[in-house]
Amino acid sequence: MITIGVDCGQTGGVVVIEDGRFMAGTRMPIITRGKWKHVDAAYLCQWLDVELAAATFVIESVHSMPAQGVASSFAFGRVTGGVEAWAMSYGRPVEWVTPVVWKKAMGLSSDKQASLDACKRHFGSCSLWEVKANDGIAEAALIALWWQRQYV
Predict the structure, then answer these.
(1) Which residues contact 104 (CB under 8 A, 6 or more apart)?
(2) For residue 123, what are the CA distances in angstroms to 37, 85, 117?
(3) What is the pLDDT of residues 54-98, one digit of tens each?
(4) What is the pTM of this model?
(5) Domains, in order of start, for the chain
(6) Mean pLDDT, the chain, whole residue set
(7) Residue 131 β-bridge partners
């Protein structure tokens, strides 16, 4: 079973997990057009080079934060919507999970380093887990792993 995990946001990530094994991951590809940032869906389509016949997309269900400004909320929503449209374009199941649910089940807090460390434990040594800026990839991997443990 293949699960594509997605941690939304400009510093998020996208991963492919197959039967509990980490297969591939990338930081969220962002392009800038004028003053707006968008998900580079063309890059994601080229990057996602796997057979999707039995795949499920699992996207972190996110929302704006109370202290977040209007412009940053809109930018975050733009990226999230781009990811959702990209995932839905494959015609495969798309599911959402809140950070509270998957992080509690995986024994994690909001500490990004803890997510990188959890990936080292679950998936083994990988250069991706050594770079703090790859925390979005780590969280996407843990979202996918959580899904597979719950539903596969």
Answers:
(1) none
(2) 31, 29, 10
(3) 899 999 997 656 666 676 677 777 888 899 999 999 999 999 999
(4) 0.92
(5) 2-151 (3.30.420.10)
(6) 91
(7) none
